[in-house]
Amino acid sequence: MRACLKRFLVLILLGLHGVLVTTAQTLDQALREEVWHLPVAARDIKGREVAGNIPVTVFRPQGDGPFPLVVISHGRAGSREGRAKPARQRFESAARYFVRKGFAVAVPTRLGYGETIAAGDPEDRGAGCSNNDYSALVEASGAQVQAVVTRMRQEAWADPQRLLLVGQSVGGIATVSATSRGITGLQAAVNFAGGSGGSPERHPGKPCAPQNMDREIARLARSANAPMLWLYTENDQYFDPATTRAWHATYQANGGRADYRLLPPYSDDGHKLFAQGNAVWQPILDVWLADAGLLPASPAR
Fold it and tell me: Does the residue 236 lie in any domain?
């Protein structure tokens, strides 16, 4: 009875600080995996507030730190059913890479996905492919990344001056957005196949209203405060090279700093590179992170 009461009080105290730490048998103890819940809010394309407690999967190396921190942002499935799964994002393979390099890792599952699918969808683009509006998506996703960074930096084991942001697909645009939000200590960011509006089935390689995404990228570039690496592939079925080159040119022309790499075709769809192509992208990041000064002094073994 006393043990149950003690656990109850601990959960209350954690909730008062905006984070609920959840334990489960599936957590990877070797990676010190935890699941936190962070209250966030955003507005959707119609201006309505969407709020909820998003799950944040946290991994850490052994030791007390302080560790450089990486926040990894996920993409977007085309259907509501797809966005409901998984209940929380992990990116376990990528997390292992970063933990080996000595990073603490945070993987938020944003509003409108997984556990918060019923809360609403602040990343909805509106109806009609030619009229897709990416403004709410860009604002909501970037703000949530920033909220996760703010919370993680409250931990003594997180180094506030050594921050890396990484994202794939819509998560890549979330990363571009967060890079424009004046986050202190942000040293670098990586955009894997970033964009929105793509559909391999309906219009392979040609996303909806790319000019509207281009407008958002131009706006974000004007306040970007860290160098980026943009990784795309020749056979990305969501965003073809002509589209991504144009987005990159816009980013550079408006003051953003981004190293654009167009990699050879990967598998049947290069959009899968981050999830499946560790042997391709990890050596690239080894070099790029060293140049950015983010390689840790004593990587975990």
Answer: yes
